[in-house]
UniProtKB/TrEMBL annotation:
InterPro entries, alphabetized: Epimerase_deHydtase, NAD(P)-bd_dom_sf
Keyword line: NAD
Domain called NAD-dependent epimerase/dehydratase: residue spans: 4-247
UniProt KW Transmembrane helix keyword: no
Name this polypeptide is given: NAD-dependent epimerase/dehydratase family protein
TM ranges: none
Keyword Protein biosynthesis: no
Chain segments annotated as coiled-coil in the UniProt record: none
Length: 322
């Protein structure tokens, strides 16, 4: 039986990835600081461990796994990443985890680790026009991410690829673009835009206004989690090391995102535009390279993913209001 190690398995994407690997017949070990908050883990073995401690990392990477997925990181939505209040923790925690994982995997003779980078590493100067952002993979340099979160992701990309060059490994690097879906963080400050909008509209009644940071004309693309997992497994098993975008190329404004969710909910929702952390003005996944190298790209519409996500978040809101 093939074996897989999912680091960050108590998180949103990691939880879905564990389910996918179990459906494929893998024996799966999951590792995280905590158990999954919104679903029972399907991992055969789940270890609660702090991966900032190299002793713990050596303990969970105690054998050769067929596949290793490194998703563990200190992260969240714009309200967490872009305020500047968490920069030191974000950089220290995530970089320490990645340094430990890269070295421990190499010393266990594990030649192939998937590393989840982020579109936040792209230069801010290429994302000032909301109608025409440039997020092609080869646009990463000269580097100028808009956050310390992005700088750490860029460093860790280079770390895993340096192990490839120096030690003949086959690590794989992907840049995720705004992953969303059920069983993810939807409240508390670390949630991302789709979850926050779904929560606000689920709590609202028709005719209410919800708060939106900025003018709402900033653009993004959002990828449904099942397609993220599909792209992730395809990349790890391919002969392409990346970095490559894993994201949707269906770009919308935040105002359009609100309108989509309001329509799904069957509610008339007004927008109250207020100051808040925004990130770059425009961002969209550029999928030419993934189509060329993997013969695949995400295809599900944003609305289809939002319908499933809103249904799940609305159920959480009802449950928590009882």
């Amino acid at each position: 039986m093939k074996t897989a190690l999912v680091l960050g398995a108590g998180g949103f994407i990691g939880g879905h990835l564990v389910k996918r690997l179990k459906r494929e017949g893998f024996w799966v070990r999951g590792v995280d600081l905590k158990f999954h908050e919104h679903a029972e883990t399907e991992a055969d073995d789940f270890v609660v461990a702090d991966l900032r401690d190299p002793y713990n990392v050596r303990g969970v990477i105690d054998r050769r796994f067929d596949e290793v997925y490194q998703l563990a990181a200190d992260m969240g939505g714009a309200g967490y990443i872009f305020t500047g209040e968490h920069d030191a923790d974000i950089m220290h925690n995530s970089a320490t985890i990645n340094l430990n994982v890269a070295d421990s995997a190499y010393k266990r003779n594990i030649s192939r680790v998937f590393y989840s980078s982020s579109a936040c590493m792209y230069p801010a100067y290429n994302q000032e026009d909301p109608t025409n952002p440039n997020c092609k993979e080869d646009s990463a340099y000269p580097a100028a991410p808009d956050s310390e979160y992005g700088w750490e992701k860029l460093f860790s990309e280079r770390l895993f690829l340096a192990y490839n060059r120096n030690y003949g490994l086959k690590n794989r690097v992907a840049r995720y673009h705004n992953i969303f879906g059920p069983e993810g963080t939807w409240d508390g400050g670390k949630e991302k835009a789709p979850a926050a909008v779904c929560r606000k509209i689920a709590r609202a009644t028709s005719g209410d206004a919800i708060d939106i940071w900025g003018d709402g004309e900033q653009t993004r693309s959002f990828l449904y989690v099942e397609e993220c997992v599909e792209g992730t497994t395809r990349l790890l098993r391919s002969d392409f090391e990346g970095p490559v975008n894993i994201g949707s190329d269906e770009m919308v404004t935040i105002n359009q995102l609100v309108d989509y969710v309001a329509d799904i909910a069957g509610k008339k929702i007004e927008k109250n535009h207020i100051p808040g952390p925004l990130g770059v003005r425009g961002r969209n996944s550029e999928n030419s390279l993934i189509k060329e190298r993997l013969g695949w790209a995400p295809s599900q519409t944003l609305r289809a993913g939002l319908e499933k996500t809103y249904e799940w978040i609305e159920a959480q809101v009802r449950r928590n209001s009882i």
